[in-house]
Design goal:
By secondary structure, this protein is an alpha+beta fold. Helices cover 46% and strands 11% of the residues. The protein contains eleven helices and seven strands. Strands 3-5-4-6-7 form a five-stranded mixed β-sheet, sandwiched between helices. A two-stranded antiparallel ribbon has the order 1-2. Helix 6 packs across helix 10. The N terminus and C terminus are likely disordered.
Length: 262
């Protein structure tokens, strides 16, 4: 990443501080004039205006690093969804099981969407341990497999102690368990998780899961309709402004091998 872009993003985080918390609440608070109830959730309204509710400074938080093992989709995709989540969060698990697979099938596979994961452990030591373990699995190209195993129905109830993390790594197909243990206990894992946490804290994210879709904040495991509307809106905005196409790292453009560019 160029130093110019790094400085711009740093300034953007300061300018956008607390926007995710405030705006996502506004997007999801009950509205008696127009709301759709689905179980315990209320559908967040997404305006038909592609620019409504979009904050350019938040859009800059998409890293678009083609070598990022905690991302899936083309680095130059027109839409990037940044996801801040915790492996002990029940609603994060619901999203991972019920909604995310459909978004990957419909939008990631055709090159429209990129999903970038941010570790945001907020439920104590086991959350932190799971976050570091997921990062470590990613160093062997198995982050998304670990993600699926950790979010399987009933998985979080088993906890995330050392033995359980090893079991999840085996289930995810991590080949070198000794390296996995070293990596999850190392300084690099701690630094990576802390970086993601600080980004979320700086935005005022107060709960998990929280999302940014091309700079549009969405809070909670909303129904799939909410995400599809936001993605379609972001895609339309990107297509109407080709001169401001997203900047991608050279090694992350179309054709790069690896999980991050599937």
């Amino acid at each position: 990443m160029s130093s110019r872009r790094a400085v711009a993003i740093g300034a953007g985080v300061v300018a956008a501080a607390a926007l995710l918390g405030v705006v996502s609440y506004t997007a999801t608070k009950p509205d008696t004039s127009a709301r759709v109830a689905t179980g315990d959730s209320t559908v967040a309204e997404v305006s038909a205006d592609p620019q409504a509710g979009v904050y350019p400074e938040l859009a800059k938080l998409a890293r678009r690093d083609g070598a990022d093992p905690l991302a899936v989709g083309r680095a130059d995709a027109p839409v990037v969804m940044v996801e801040y989540a915790d492996f002990k969060c029940a609603f994060c698990g619901k999203f991972a099981r019920d909604t995310e697979p459909g978004l990957i099938e419909k939008y990631v596979k055709n090159g429209t969407l990129r999903i970038e994961w941010r570790n945001y452990p907020i439920f104590g030591e086991e959350s932190e341990a799971a976050a570091r373990a997921a990062w470590a699995a990613g160093q062997q190209g198995r982050f998304w497999e670990f993600h699926s195993a950790a979010y399987a129905q009933g998985s979080k109830e088993k906890g995330f102690d050392a033995g359980r993390l090893d079991a999840l790594a085996r289930e995810a197909g991590v080949k070198d368990l000794d390296r996995f243990r070293r990596d999850r206990a190392g300084d690099a894992a701690a630094a990576a998780v802390q970086k993601d946490q600080e980004e979320a804290y700086g935005l005022g994210a107060t709960s998990t899961p929280s999302f940014l879709i091309n700079g549009r904040p969405i809070a909670g495991a909303q129904p799939e309709q909410t995400f599809t509307q936001a993605i379609e809106s972001a895609k339309a905005a990107a297509e109407s402004a080709p001169e401001s196409a997203p900047e991608a790292e050279e090694d992350g453009k179309a054709g790069t091998d690896g999980k991050a560019d599937q």
